[in-house]
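Lecture 7 notes: from sequence to structure.
We start with the chain below.
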Amino acid sequence: MWVLLLLAGCNQVTNPEYKSTATNPVTRRNNILQSPEQVRTFLNLYVPTDTFPINISTKAGEWEGPESANFKWRGSMIPRVFWPVFISQIAYDPLAEDILFFATKSFRVSNATWALLTRVPGEYWSSQVYLFLFNTQTHQITNGLRVAEAWGDAGDSFYMEATIDKVPGNEFRIILSQGECHPVDENYEQFTCADSVKTYSLQNQAFRFISVTSKKK
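Predicted structure tokens for the same chain:
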């Protein structure tokens, strides 16, 4: 697994999505969803689901490229006009031409909240997936949690993937698994790696941290 990540970082697929996405902080907030029609158009970019668990990973996009048939989290490109919706949760340069946002899946958290699984700019391409909470009354994103990412570069590698499941009490459980490796010799023959598993709960408009376990190898 780690070898594949390391190779992917050194042999990026030729694709417009594989560009540097260095971001600059944007501090202002824009609520551009002023009408019910705008809200519907925005939410319709996502594919609603009520099937759980949901397993999220961008590893296939890193190894094989975001156009690969094996990459299940490509999603639909979000028009630039909607990008300001995300300003309250992530920093990006609104004038940059080489960053892309993608709408993937959504699910209802409560009567007033939709969870929007959105692929956003990462280190080299849109390799991160965030779970954003969208308030249908204020038409704003109120919270966000990174749930997936994958990259490899010059021997270093990182991945994060998630499983989201519905549990009793109108609540959701999020399990985040992540790992990273770094070379300890110039020939890239030995690596030091660390893995961790974090658990969160999601209810209404809030994420709550529950536990973490970690190990080095």
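Points to note: The chain has one domain: 2-216. Helices lie at 2-10, 36-43, 59-64.
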